Amino acid sequence: MKPPSSTIALTSSWFLRLTASLILLQTLYFKFSAAPESVYIFNKVGLGAPGRIGSGIAELIAAILLLIPSTTWLGAGLALAVMGGAIMSHLTVLGIDVMNDHGELFCLALIVALCSSVLLLLNRRSIPLIGKLLP
């Protein structure tokens, strides 16, 4: 199965893929370098260093998969799952404003989730097993 083929869909797909990937990749430095804000977040939600590193690895894999046309759907699904966890953590444990970031991390998670959702919709026919059944 091929990703979207119209010019508008292809341009939109690349914009969404790059946006989500750049956000995911930009946050990796903070997770892997044990930045104080990242350590605070993962300790507060009870995941500690293994959760921080594991989340970073999942985000790295998602960012790479998003940029490969044949695996965009998989990267979008993984990114959406990880961002779903981040959004729920903000709404239930962390709050929107974490360590006076004015909600920046929450907004970035929402942007990645939105990009990933649209990418899943655009690439729905590429999803193995169920893609051919979808309109």
Q: Give the oligomeric state of the chains in this entry, treating copies of one chain as homo and distinct chains as hetero.
A: single chain
Query: How many domains?
Result: 1
Low-pLDDT ranges: none
Shape: elongated
What proportion of the residues is helical, as a percent range?
A: over 70%
β-strand number = 0
The termini sit apart by: 14 Å
Strand content: under 5%
Assign the structural class, choosing from mainly alpha, mainly beta, alpha/beta, alpha+beta, or little secondary structure: mainly alpha
Question: How would you describe this protein?
Answer:
With 135 residues, the protein is an all-alpha fold. The protein has one domain. It contains 5 helices and no strands. α2 (36-44) crosses α3 (48-67) and α4 (72-94) packs antiparallel against α5. The chain is elongated, with a radius of gyration of 16 Å. The two termini are 14 Å apart. The mean pLDDT is 91.
Task: List the main descriptive attributes of the protein structure presented here.
135 residues; mainly alpha; 5 helices; 72% helix
Summarize the structure.
The chain is an all-alpha fold. It has helices spanning 7-32, 36-44, 48-67, 72-94, 104-122.
